[in-house]
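BUG: 3D viewer hangs when loading the predicted structure for this chain

Environment: internal workstation, default settings.
Expected: structure renders.
Actual: progress bar stalls at 90%.

Input used:
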Amino acid sequence: MGDFLNVAADWLERGRPGEQSALAEAAAYGALLWSADGVRAYERQGEDAYRLTLVGAGSAMTYEIVGVEGGWLR
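Structure tokens produced before the viewer hung:
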């Protein structure tokens, strides 16, 4: 039973094998906008561009709009 709890704690902290943890994704992609059916959307406003990243099934795709502040997109 102890091994099961250690595996569960490891998955919560680091994500399941092949997945990133929620904290690692937020650090890499920005603030979580929504999550549905295993796909998550993150946004990040940089000095030069607004970035929207979709993450799911072990891959990520980022849309970048240069010279735009993303607040008006909501």
